[in-house]
Design brief:
The protein has about 140 residues and is mainly α. Helix content is about 75%, strand content about 0%.
Length: about 140
């Protein structure tokens, strides 16, 4: 299920140009005689690091929204869409959802799934394996809190 979202998000972001340099730069370097395998690997690793930091920045934005008490008003959003013919989805979203704790959590997950799609990570499989592994662990995973 998450793999489907990952593919959908990745394809949409690729169509909007977000993956142009990520996909092309290392490939261009690899096809050139100017760069060593080590240099290409370094660039690929740097791109992954950038993707990870972008996810961390979304979590920081979620923390800030939580600290400020900015939470989505789903009822107002839905009411605006059904009862106010002068407002469209984008306007209602910006009024009642955008930049809230929940919106930033969604952004984090979207960035994570985008990376999974771009790097061809089978996240469904990895989550299933991790859950199976965790099921066999001790209470609190053996830690004292």
């Amino acid at each position: 299920m998450l793999n489907e979202f990952a593919t959908q998000i990745f394809e949409a972001n690729k169509a909007k140009g977000f993956w142009d340099e990520r996909l092309l730069l290392a490939n261009k370097m690899e096809q050139s005689d100017l760069f060593s395998e080590k240099e290409v690997a370094y660039v690929r690793a740097s791109i992954i690091s950038q993707l990870l930091v972008l996810q961390v920045s979304e979590l920081a934005e979620a923390q800030e929204a939580h600290r400020k008490g900015k939470f989505a008003n789903i009822r107002a959003y839905q009411t605006a869409l059904t009862e106010n013919k002068a407002i469209d989805n984008r306007q209602a979203f910006e009024l009642y959802i955008k930049d809230t704790f929940e919106d930033e959590i969604a952004d984090t997950i979207i960035r994570l799934l985008d990376m999974c799609g771009g790097l061809a990570i089978n996240i469904d499989w990895h989550i299933a394996q991790k859950l199976r592994y965790n099921a066999g662990r001790k209470k609190l995973h053996g830690k004292n809190y």
